[in-house]
Amino acid sequence: MRTVAIFAAVSALVAAVALPAYAATKPVDADATTLQQMAVSDAQSLVVASEATAAPLARGTYSATTPEEIAKKKAEAAAKARAAAAARVASAGSGGQISDADLRLVAAGSGAVRYPVPQGSYYVSRTLGNGHNGADMVAPAGTPIFAAASGVVRISSESHYGYGVAVVIDSVVGGKRVSTLYAHMTNGTRAVQAGQTVQAGQFIGKVGNTGRSYGAHLHFEVEVNGSLVEPIGWLRVNA
What we know:
- The strands form two sheets. Strands 1, 2, 4, 5, 6, 7, 9 and 10 form an eight-stranded antiparallel β-sheet that branches.
- This protein has helices spanning 2-24, 35-53, 67-92, 231-238; strands spanning 123-126, 135-138, 144-146, 151-157, 165-173, 176-185, 197-198, 203-206, 217-224, 227-229.
- Helix content is 32%, strand content 23%.
- It is an alpha+beta fold.
- The chain is rod-shaped and about 165 Å long.
- The chain starts with a helix and ends with a helix.
- Mean pLDDT is 78; it is low at 45-53 and 89-104.
Protein backbone atom coordinates (compact mmCIF):
# COMPACT_ATOMS: atom_id res chain seq x y z
CA MET A 1 0.00 0.00 0.00
CA ARG A 2 2.84 2.31 0.84
CA THR A 3 4.50 1.55 -2.48
CA VAL A 4 1.29 2.18 -4.42
CA ALA A 5 0.83 5.49 -2.67
CA ILE A 6 4.34 6.58 -3.53
CA PHE A 7 3.88 5.71 -7.22
CA ALA A 8 0.60 7.63 -7.30
CA ALA A 9 2.21 10.71 -5.78
CA VAL A 10 5.09 10.60 -8.24
CA SER A 11 2.68 10.24 -11.19
CA ALA A 12 0.66 13.23 -10.00
CA LEU A 13 3.79 15.31 -9.66
CA VAL A 14 4.95 14.41 -13.17
CA ALA A 15 1.55 15.33 -14.60
CA ALA A 16 1.57 18.71 -12.84
CA VAL A 17 4.95 19.61 -14.26
CA ALA A 18 4.28 18.42 -17.79
CA LEU A 19 0.93 20.14 -18.40
CA PRO A 20 2.25 23.83 -18.56
CA ALA A 21 5.02 22.78 -20.95
CA TYR A 22 2.48 21.12 -23.16
CA ALA A 23 0.34 24.23 -23.11
CA ALA A 24 3.34 26.35 -24.12
CA THR A 25 4.02 24.20 -27.15
CA LYS A 26 0.44 24.48 -28.44
CA PRO A 27 0.30 25.75 -32.09
CA VAL A 28 -0.42 29.48 -32.51
CA ASP A 29 -3.81 30.50 -33.80
CA ALA A 30 -3.73 31.63 -37.47
CA ASP A 31 -5.53 34.88 -36.56
CA ALA A 32 -2.99 35.84 -33.93
CA THR A 33 -0.34 38.44 -34.93
CA THR A 34 3.10 38.56 -33.35
CA LEU A 35 4.98 41.78 -32.55
CA GLN A 36 7.57 40.94 -35.20
CA GLN A 37 4.87 40.51 -37.86
CA MET A 38 3.32 43.85 -36.90
CA ALA A 39 6.71 45.53 -37.27
CA VAL A 40 7.21 43.95 -40.69
CA SER A 41 3.74 45.00 -41.80
CA ASP A 42 4.28 48.57 -40.60
CA ALA A 43 7.62 48.74 -42.36
CA GLN A 44 6.08 47.55 -45.59
CA SER A 45 3.28 50.06 -45.40
CA LEU A 46 5.80 52.86 -44.73
CA VAL A 47 7.84 51.90 -47.78
CA VAL A 48 4.76 51.85 -49.98
CA ALA A 49 3.72 55.31 -48.75
CA SER A 50 7.22 56.68 -49.38
CA GLU A 51 7.23 55.37 -52.93
CA ALA A 52 3.81 56.84 -53.57
CA THR A 53 4.86 60.37 -52.55
CA ALA A 54 8.32 60.41 -54.12
CA ALA A 55 8.72 62.63 -57.21
CA PRO A 56 11.85 63.57 -59.14
CA LEU A 57 13.00 67.20 -58.67
CA ALA A 58 14.31 69.08 -61.68
CA ARG A 59 17.49 71.07 -60.95
CA GLY A 60 16.04 74.16 -62.55
CA THR A 61 13.06 74.30 -60.22
CA TYR A 62 15.04 75.37 -57.19
CA SER A 63 18.29 77.08 -56.28
CA ALA A 64 20.56 76.18 -53.42
CA THR A 65 22.45 79.29 -52.27
CA THR A 66 25.24 79.78 -49.82
CA PRO A 67 25.49 82.91 -47.65
CA GLU A 68 28.12 84.21 -50.10
CA GLU A 69 25.80 83.69 -53.08
CA ILE A 70 22.94 85.43 -51.27
CA ALA A 71 25.19 88.42 -50.47
CA LYS A 72 26.33 88.55 -54.10
CA LYS A 73 22.75 88.55 -55.39
CA LYS A 74 21.79 91.31 -52.98
CA ALA A 75 24.78 93.38 -54.12
CA GLU A 76 23.83 92.87 -57.78
CA ALA A 77 20.24 93.91 -57.08
CA ALA A 78 21.44 97.03 -55.22
CA ALA A 79 23.77 97.92 -58.10
CA LYS A 80 20.93 97.59 -60.60
CA ALA A 81 18.72 99.80 -58.43
CA ARG A 82 21.45 102.47 -58.21
CA ALA A 83 21.99 102.38 -61.98
CA ALA A 84 18.26 102.73 -62.62
CA ALA A 85 18.04 105.66 -60.19
CA ALA A 86 21.02 107.36 -61.85
CA ALA A 87 19.41 106.90 -65.26
CA ARG A 88 16.18 108.47 -64.01
CA VAL A 89 18.07 111.43 -62.55
CA ALA A 90 20.05 111.92 -65.75
CA SER A 91 16.87 111.77 -67.81
CA ALA A 92 15.08 114.24 -65.55
CA GLY A 93 18.02 116.66 -65.60
CA SER A 94 18.75 116.51 -69.31
CA GLY A 95 16.89 119.76 -69.87
CA GLY A 96 15.48 118.83 -73.25
CA GLN A 97 15.45 116.38 -76.11
CA ILE A 98 18.82 115.24 -77.44
CA SER A 99 19.59 116.82 -80.77
CA ASP A 100 19.63 114.53 -83.80
CA ALA A 101 22.04 116.86 -85.62
CA ASP A 102 25.23 115.23 -86.90
CA LEU A 103 24.79 111.80 -85.39
CA ARG A 104 28.18 110.80 -86.82
CA LEU A 105 29.66 112.68 -83.83
CA VAL A 106 32.22 114.30 -86.11
CA ALA A 107 31.99 117.99 -86.94
CA ALA A 108 31.28 118.89 -90.54
CA GLY A 109 34.11 120.29 -92.63
CA SER A 110 37.74 119.41 -93.20
CA GLY A 111 39.67 122.52 -92.12
CA ALA A 112 41.98 123.10 -89.17
CA VAL A 113 39.11 124.83 -87.33
CA ARG A 114 35.57 123.44 -86.92
CA TYR A 115 32.39 124.70 -85.30
CA PRO A 116 32.07 123.22 -81.79
CA VAL A 117 28.38 122.40 -82.27
CA PRO A 118 26.56 121.48 -85.50
CA GLN A 119 25.51 124.52 -87.48
CA GLY A 120 21.76 125.00 -87.43
CA SER A 121 21.45 123.38 -83.99
CA TYR A 122 22.10 126.53 -81.92
CA TYR A 123 21.71 130.28 -81.61
CA VAL A 124 24.02 132.75 -79.86
CA SER A 125 22.38 134.41 -76.84
CA ARG A 126 25.39 136.58 -75.93
CA THR A 127 29.09 136.78 -76.64
CA LEU A 128 32.36 138.29 -75.38
CA GLY A 129 32.03 141.56 -73.44
CA ASN A 130 30.70 143.09 -70.21
CA GLY A 131 32.55 140.62 -68.02
CA HIS A 132 31.51 137.63 -70.11
CA ASN A 133 34.53 135.78 -71.52
CA GLY A 134 32.97 133.79 -74.33
CA ALA A 135 29.95 133.06 -76.50
CA ASP A 136 26.85 131.25 -75.24
CA MET A 137 25.72 128.89 -77.98
CA VAL A 138 22.21 127.82 -76.95
CA ALA A 139 21.38 124.27 -78.05
CA PRO A 140 19.27 121.39 -76.71
CA ALA A 141 20.81 119.43 -73.85
CA GLY A 142 22.64 116.44 -75.27
CA THR A 143 23.69 118.14 -78.50
CA PRO A 144 27.19 116.85 -79.41
CA ILE A 145 30.19 119.11 -78.83
CA PHE A 146 33.31 118.89 -81.02
CA ALA A 147 36.91 120.04 -80.66
CA ALA A 148 37.23 123.31 -82.58
CA ALA A 149 40.88 122.54 -83.38
CA SER A 150 43.40 119.73 -83.03
CA GLY A 151 45.52 119.84 -79.91
CA VAL A 152 46.13 118.47 -76.42
CA VAL A 153 43.52 118.43 -73.67
CA ARG A 154 44.77 120.53 -70.76
CA ILE A 155 41.66 120.35 -68.56
CA SER A 156 38.87 117.77 -68.45
CA SER A 157 36.79 118.06 -65.30
CA GLU A 158 33.32 117.34 -63.95
CA SER A 159 33.58 120.50 -61.80
CA HIS A 160 35.75 123.30 -63.20
CA TYR A 161 34.83 126.31 -61.08
CA GLY A 162 31.67 128.02 -62.34
CA TYR A 163 32.08 126.33 -65.71
CA GLY A 164 30.73 123.05 -64.36
CA VAL A 165 31.67 120.12 -66.57
CA ALA A 166 34.33 121.56 -68.85
CA VAL A 167 37.16 120.79 -71.27
CA VAL A 168 40.08 123.02 -72.32
CA ILE A 169 42.17 122.21 -75.39
CA ASP A 170 45.51 123.83 -76.31
CA SER A 171 46.19 124.03 -80.05
CA VAL A 172 48.39 125.73 -82.62
CA VAL A 173 46.46 127.30 -85.52
CA GLY A 174 48.25 129.27 -88.22
CA GLY A 175 51.38 129.40 -86.08
CA LYS A 176 49.52 130.92 -83.14
CA ARG A 177 48.79 129.42 -79.74
CA VAL A 178 45.04 128.89 -79.46
CA SER A 179 43.19 127.73 -76.35
CA THR A 180 39.52 126.76 -76.57
CA LEU A 181 37.22 126.17 -73.60
CA TYR A 182 33.94 124.22 -73.65
CA ALA A 183 31.78 124.65 -70.54
CA HIS A 184 28.49 123.60 -68.88
CA MET A 185 28.52 120.11 -70.44
CA THR A 186 26.21 117.35 -69.19
CA ASN A 187 27.64 115.29 -66.34
CA GLY A 188 29.30 112.09 -67.42
CA THR A 189 29.49 112.97 -71.13
CA ARG A 190 33.16 114.03 -71.35
CA ALA A 191 34.80 111.82 -73.97
CA VAL A 192 38.38 113.04 -73.49
CA GLN A 193 40.89 113.18 -70.62
CA ALA A 194 43.66 115.59 -69.68
CA GLY A 195 46.83 114.89 -71.65
CA GLN A 196 44.96 113.30 -74.54
CA THR A 197 45.61 114.42 -78.11
CA VAL A 198 42.45 115.20 -80.09
CA GLN A 199 41.68 116.06 -83.69
CA ALA A 200 39.63 118.95 -85.03
CA GLY A 201 35.99 117.89 -85.14
CA GLN A 202 36.42 115.07 -82.63
CA PHE A 203 33.52 114.46 -80.26
CA ILE A 204 34.39 115.63 -76.74
CA GLY A 205 31.08 115.83 -74.85
CA LYS A 206 27.46 116.99 -74.85
CA VAL A 207 25.71 120.28 -74.21
CA GLY A 208 24.37 120.58 -70.67
CA ASN A 209 23.47 122.95 -67.87
CA THR A 210 26.12 122.44 -65.16
CA GLY A 211 28.01 125.02 -63.10
CA ARG A 212 26.77 128.61 -63.07
CA SER A 213 24.34 128.15 -65.91
CA TYR A 214 20.71 129.07 -66.52
CA GLY A 215 19.62 126.75 -69.28
CA ALA A 216 21.27 124.27 -71.60
CA HIS A 217 24.00 125.83 -73.74
CA LEU A 218 27.67 125.65 -74.65
CA HIS A 219 29.84 128.40 -73.22
CA PHE A 220 32.69 128.64 -75.75
CA GLU A 221 35.85 130.66 -75.12
CA VAL A 222 38.82 131.29 -77.41
CA GLU A 223 42.24 132.67 -76.46
CA VAL A 224 44.86 133.47 -79.10
CA ASN A 225 48.40 133.90 -77.79
CA GLY A 226 46.97 134.28 -74.28
CA SER A 227 44.35 136.93 -75.08
CA LEU A 228 40.59 136.47 -75.31
CA VAL A 229 39.03 136.94 -78.75
CA GLU A 230 35.38 137.04 -79.79
CA PRO A 231 34.60 133.36 -80.51
CA ILE A 232 31.89 133.67 -83.17
CA GLY A 233 33.92 136.06 -85.32
CA TRP A 234 36.99 133.82 -84.95
CA LEU A 235 34.95 130.82 -86.11
CA ARG A 236 33.57 132.69 -89.11
CA VAL A 237 37.06 133.63 -90.24
CA ASN A 238 38.79 130.32 -89.57
CA ALA A 239 36.25 127.48 -89.68
